[in-house]
Design goal:
This protein is mainly α. The chain has a three-stranded antiparallel beta sheet, with no helix packed on it. A hairpin with a 2-residue loop joins strand 2 and strand 3. Helix 2 packs antiparallel against helix 3 and helix 3 runs antiparallel to helix 4. The longest helix has about 110 residues. The relative contact order is 0.07. The mean pLDDT is about 90.
């Protein structure tokens, strides 16, 4: 494990706790204020070259200059790590959390009760932020599900539209075929009717001619002198 990165929280110098040979160092004697600080801001531990190191948060009271330096360090790190000024930014959130922890450290040294109250405030803020984060993730998941459902319904509707278009084209083709058949039948029927009318007219003329012949013959017979 590599040594922890530099933090805005002020820590004491690292202490060697044990080595690979099993040689342990004497435990650090702590005061009540230091115990409270260690419960609020647990010490950092890491292993380097087989040696276990621990670093406790500093119990040195802060001065006005320390607060000014903290503000300058915060601004410098925000710029150095290119934290976004607006919106959701994990880097900015981390740095401001470190700054708040350092303020809690400074307050706790002067008044432990006030530091513990600030700890409650910090934890409540983190719980609220985590709740909002969960709500945000849930809303994103819900939005994704809705988007997928909408996309699926869109594909289904597009498929239905294609099917209806194909069905419409088929019906139009059938209509055209039936219209063509109707035109052919009407044309044939008109030709047949015209042929029937022509045949009927010829037949009528023949009958008229025959009638005239018969009439002439009958008149001839009636006009012949009697013996």
């Amino acid at each position: 494990m590599i040594p922890p990165h530099n933090s805005l929280v002020k820590y004491d110098n690292a202490i060697l706790v044990s080595t690979t040979k099993g040689e342990g160092k004497a435990a650090k004697q702590t005061t009540q204020t230091e115990d409270i600080l260690n419960s609020i801001l647990p010490p950092r531990e890491w292993t380097e070259d087989g040696q276990l190191w621990v670093q406790y948060v500093s119990s040195t009271p802060a001065t006005r200059l320390d607060v000014i330096n903290l503000q300058e360090s915060l601004d410098h790190k925000l710029q150095q790590r290119q934290a976004r000024e607006t919106g959701i930014c994990p880097v900015r959130e981390e740095l401001y959390a470190q700054c708040f922890d350092e303020l809690i450290r400074q307050v706790t040294i002067n008044c432990a009760e006030r530091g513990l109250l600030l700890l409650r405030v910090r934890d409540e803020i983190r719980m609220t932020t985590a709740a909002y984060q969960t709500l945000y993730e849930s809303s994103i998941a819900f939005g994704m599900r809705k988007a997928l459902m909408s996309e699926r319904k869109k594909e289904e509707m597009e498929k239905k539209i294609r099917e209806l278009d194909d069905e419409n084209e088929d019906l139009e083709r059938q209509v055209n075929e039936l219209s063509t058949r109707i035109d052919v039948i009407q044309k044939k029927e008109e030709e047949r009717r015209a042929q029937d009318e022509t045949s009927h007219a010829e037949e009528v003329e023949k009958l008229k001619a025959l009638n005239e012949q018969l009439k002439a013959s009958l008149e001839g017979l009636l006009s012949a002198p009697k013996k």
